[in-house]
Design goal:
The protein has 3 helices and 14 strands. The protein is mainly beta.
């Protein structure tokens, strides 16, 4: 059996509208995610927002931007702070409520629906441990210093500092800014895991202001090499999977800030999966069970058997034996 997250993953299905609720535990009045950002990172068994946001149409994509686009090409500079932006593209759900901005929700009479969107991002090292530190961005576009908390920022940093999420302060957002400080030298290649939700506004009434089915979801990952590392090759992209969910490729581009004018630099980084050069010393990571598309062959055989018995179809898992026919 594949490992599961357990209670925290189930609790998330109540639907969250603010990043702070992800720090809550499942038994608090406002049920929370127990500190799990659901961004597809291996430390959370690769679970993404799709754990609860089911039946996603699969139309949105994510673009990750940086003020120093070389982050995606030549790699990160140790201890350097980067201004990042997560952009959700092709929003299509909840557009009926987009004109309401923040004048929506249960406090309005009559009830007005909200355009809820969100994201989650974390950057991990090769062992799967969070790497670097995060900070919010203030109204002037500057990175917050120290442990300052900006309650009006669109991005929320988990209390343990391991990931960034949408704060839910403003509705209808499709882009979120944050600052990330790279780790010290010797950290090796890192991986950014990003996920986003395009909320459909639930049923648009006070009884069901939000729900999970039908929201669109996207998740992906991208390697961030260390600048100057021998054979480093940035700009790669990869696809990952979780049980029952095919996660699409993550589109990336750089964003340069010059005289306060933001100009996107097309880096042509949306390419086929597996485009990253793997150094010999890194290949043991690929041999780990968690890196396999089918980490549990026995369970795959069971899935195939059930598929053949219930749907009359076959293929994709190999072949199965006769079995007892009990399903």
């Amino acid at each position: 059996m594949r490992p599961v997250i357990g209670v925290a993953a189930i609790a998330l299905c109540t639907g969250f509208s603010s990043g702070a609720t992800f720090d809550n535990t499942a038994n608090q009045p406002a049920d929370g995610g127990g500190g799990i950002p659901f961004d597809g990172a291996p430390r959370w068994t690769s679970h993404t927002c799709a754990v609860c946001h089911t039946n996603a149409p699969g139309q949105i994509t994510i673009r990750l931007e940086a003020d120093h686009p070389e982050l995606f090409t030549t790699g990160y500079t140790p201890n350097m702070q980067y201004h990042l932006r997560v952009v959700m593209e092709n929003e299509h759900e909840g557009l009926a409520y987009k004109s309401n901005p923040d004048s929506c929700g249960g406090s309005d009479v009559p009830f007005v629906g909200c355009d809820y969107n969100g994201f989650g991002l974390e950057i991990d090292d090769m062992s799967g441990a969070p790497s670097g530190s995060y900070a919010q961005v203030d109204g002037s576009g500057a990175c917050a210093t120290g442990s300052a908390t900006i309650f009006t920022a669109d991005t929320y940093i988990l209390k343990d500092g391991t990931a960034a999420l949408s704060s839910g302060v403003h509705n209808g957002a499709t882009s979120w800014d944050l600052c990330w400080t790279a780790p010290a030298s010797g950290s090796g290649t890192l991986t950014a895991y990003v996920a986003a939700v395009d909320g459909n506004g639930g049923s648009g009434n006070a009884s069901f202001p939000t729900d999970e089915p039908g929201d669109d979801v996207f998740a992906g990952q991208v390697p961030l090499p260390a600048a100057g590392a021998q054979g480093s090759q940035g700009g790669g992209c990869d696809a990952t999977t979780e049980p029952g969910v095919l996660v699409a490729l993550l589109a990336l581009c750089g964003l340069a800030w010059r005289k306060h004018r933001r100009r996107a630099l097309a880096l042509a980084l949306l390419v086929a999966g597996g485009c990253v050069h793997v150094r010999p010393r890194e290949r043991e990571t690929l041999a780990k069970r968690a890196m396999k598309f089918s980490p549990d062959p026995a369970e795959d055989e069971l899935d195939l058997h059930m598929q053949e018995a219930r749907e009359g179809s076959e293929g994709g898992y190999g072949t199965s034996g006769g079995g007892c026919g009990c399903n």
